Amino acid sequence: VHAAAGSPVHGAQHETGTPGGARGVTSLTADPDRPADVAVSLVARRQRFRLATGRSVDGYTLNGVSPGPEIRARAGQLVEVRLVNASVPDGVTLHWHGVDVPNAADGVAGVTQDAVPPGRSFTYRFVADQAGTFWYHSHQMSHEQVRRGLLGALVVSPAAPPPAGTVDVVALLHLYEGARTVNGREGDLRAEARPGERVRVRVVNTENGQTPVWVGGAPFRLLAVDGTDLNGPAPVRDTAVLVTAGGRADIEVTMPADGSPVRVHIGGPAGVVLGSRSYDAPAAARPTATLDLLSYGKPAPIGFDPAKADRRFTYDIGRRPGFLDGRPGVWWTVNGHMYPDVPMFVVAEGDVVRMRVSNHSGETHPMHLHGHHAVVLARDGVPATGAPWWVDSLEVGNGESYDIAFVADNPGIWMDHCHNLPHATEGLVAHLMYE
Ligand code: C2O
Ligand code: CU
Where is this region: Disordered (predicted)? Predict the structure, then answer.
């Protein structure tokens, strides 16, 4: 486990192992006697703490820092995390965002466990069977606790040892009391990379809104989205990638032969500066072009036939006046119903599920499905032509509709909610349940 958030990991794997085709059916429930390969203890506290620049923040920490320790595992390893609540008055949990864990480890207070009260602990165990970029965060009063720092990055590398000459760095975006940070620091994060080296920058967007990422000084490839490699991604330049709230994007840059540095912009002038002799990379203006993931990369089999769906659902997002917890307001609706009266989506294990997610609520919603990855089939009825685009977090703009499909291969009760977390507090939540 690398607990040094912000330091690049040299020699870590370039994930060429699984091109973006089928995601394996999960093999999740570990033998209870199997010892952990990666064992971590995380102690949650309510406290004031300082960002690297010295700014004082009133929030929460894990092992005294926020973001919490960067957890690294290899595919197939058993990860065991003991969460201790030292002093979070409202209780705390940990959700493994994007990892299709067994339901009991999903960390949703009130659904899969009770929030851990002060003085108590809870142990999460899961097999990290999918290599990729993930993150973890509290799922108790999520809006408040995530915003104030109960979060961290989780990276699962492929099982095979890494080739030499690659650099792997996490860039976790978070706003602390309005201060925009990457790995908890305001301003640029610097990572050493020599000419010709390939660098994988794992962008994690923990914010409530979508963020653009672009690169100045070199072309880049978008290797993976939401912990899943794309198939045959081509290099692009002068193009931005939009990273959904809660989503991840893995960017690969090959360092220029002449030794000039490269700037990966994360939502603005600041971001990650890659270099060796110098880190003096000028800012590049945000490109007007945006990568369309519906047509990026090369098609590949997805491992099931979405035309033969066992279940078809609509997840239609609207708004209407009503009462939520006795408070009057204009609240979100799912299929015309207000939380908590939204009928569950019921599936049986093994079902191929299709869902049309549509939005006429007047605002954008980054929709996050727990426990499963879905493949995007179409937007506004226009079918995908690129690599299989697997998501756990999908930005659905007002007026848009997406057709997605997934295999119900992970029994339990799973949230499917908006990751603009104030919206989830305002009821934009539904559940998927196995019969
Ligand atoms: Cu990242 Cu239900 O959450
Ligand atoms: Cu929303």
Answer: 1-32
Stretch (H or E) spanning 120: none
Find the ligand nearest to 418 CA: 2
Q: Please give all residues whose beta carbon lies within 6 A of any atom in ligand 1, as ranges.
A: 95, 97, 137, 139, 246, 368, 370, 415, 417, 419
For residue 63, the one-letter residue type is: N
Q: What ipTM does the predicted assembly reach? A: 0.97
pTM of the predicted model as reported, rounded to 2 decimal places? 0.93
Query: Which two structure tokens, joined as six digits, stand for 296?
Result: 């990026």
Among candidate residues 286, 199, 285, 245, the one with its CA nearest the CA of residue 418? 245
Atom of ligand 1 nearest to the CA of 108: 2
For every one of its 435 residues, what pLDDT tens digit does the chain have, with 9 covering 90 and above? 333 333 333 333 333 333 334 454 444 456 778 899 999 999 999 999 998 778 999 999 999 999 999 999 999 999 999 999 999 999 999 999 999 999 999 999 999 999 999 999 999 999 999 999 999 999 999 999 999 999 999 999 998 877 777 899 999 999 999 999 999 999 999 999 999 999 999 999 999 999 999 999 999 999 999 999 999 999 999 999 999 999 999 999 999 999 999 999 999 999 999 999 889 999 999 999 999 999 999 999 999 999 999 999 999 999 999 888 888 999 999 999 998 899 999 999 999 999 999 999 999 999 999 999 999 999 999 999 999 999 999 999 999 999 999 999 999 999 999 999 999 999 999 999 999
Of 328, 401, 325, 392, residue with least CA distance to 358: 401
Q: How many CB atoms lie within 10 A of CB 303?
A: 13
Query: Which ligand minimizes its atom distance to the CA of 140?
Result: 1
Minimum-distance ligand 1 atom for the alpha carbon of 393: 1
Which domains, from first to last, does the chain contain? Answer: 9-157 (2.60.40.420), 166-290 (2.60.40.420), 311-434 (2.60.40.420)
